Amino acid sequence: MISRKFIPIAALLTIVAAAALWLTLRTPEVYVQGTYVFGTRVQLAIYGVPLERAQQDADAVFAHFRSMHRELHAWQPSEVTRLNQHIAAGEPFQASPELAAIIRAARALSLQTQGLFDPGIGRLIRLWGFQADQFDAKPPSRDSVLREQSLHASIADLTISDSGVVTSENRAVALDLGGYAKGWSLDEAAAILRQRGVRNALVDVGGNLLALGSKGAIPWRVGIQDPRKAGTLATLELRDGEAIGTSGDYERFYRSGGVRYCHIIDPRSGFPATQSESVTVLVRPGPHAGALSDGASKAPFVAGPALAMSLASGIGVDSLLLVDAQGRVWDSAPMAERVRFTDPALRPARLE
């Protein structure tokens, strides 16, 4: 279902979605439309465009999102599931140009993050019960996890030819692009909007956000969700072309025996990551800023504060905000210059 609003008065809009809170002032020139896709809430705000045209622009973006969702789904019939079937059978697969581009970029990012971001561990994600709309609240046995982990599946095992033929010597590889496709969709949305002449918009896909232009003379202001209580931990202003993404343990998780199991799996152990409650990255403008904002938060989340900054800087990200497993807040110097904490007394530790 799609909801449409053309905002007639000035007021404060607060939206909490997955890892981010979206804040913006409603004015007569801001059109907001929302829908549900990629298993999450999606919102688009367009500034300075007439109502009918803004509706058409939003419809074009959401139609593309629905198409991406169908083709990239990890457990319902899709191009990705067909690819995984071919890999399991030891057969080559002719990927579409769109999927081949995503795989190449995700594979490169995995290699740059020492494999801590790895969309090739879909079988482990399924084993933990996270390839479902509702999670099974019973974790798998330790032996079953170790057996699966011993197969050492990784997106690095894939070879993609110039023509898009995907092969793998490791039949245990199964792609799950849930930690990357939402960010990729931000870049696709930005391209669609620019092609349609939209210069000022804010795209939110499950808490991953990308800004185009501004809201008139006012920058788009967004918030970062507190991982353990309702409301924001901090807010910041997004500049034209910047993207922000958060990975957290507070949306997709279940508890069993008093233990929280989150959907982000540590590829090294095969078990859910436990070093962080949330990690937010701010990415500079670029053709794949959205995709990077989604993928770049995963490795620091898995590694925790000791290695977070070196992993992020290795992929060109210097603005990082992390809440560790003990609830302590950390930030990098560039992020400290941009964020405004809800609690003015908060003094984060410095990520180096």
TrEMBL record:
Gene3D superfamilies registered for this protein in UniProt: ApbE-like domains
Cofactor(s) needed: Mg(2+); Mn(2+)
EC assignment: 2.7.1.180
Catalysed reactions listed for this entry: L-threonyl-[protein] + FAD = FMN-L-threonyl-[protein] + AMP + H(+)
Residues the record lists as binding Mg(2+): 179, 294
InterPro entries: ApbE (IPR024932), ApbE-like_sf (IPR003374)
Transmembrane segments: none
Cofactor annotation remark: Magnesium. Can also use manganese.
UniProt-listed PANTHER family: FAD:PROTEIN FMN TRANSFERASE, THIAMINE BIOSYNTHESIS LIPOPROTEIN APBE
Annotated protein name in UniProt: FAD:protein FMN transferase
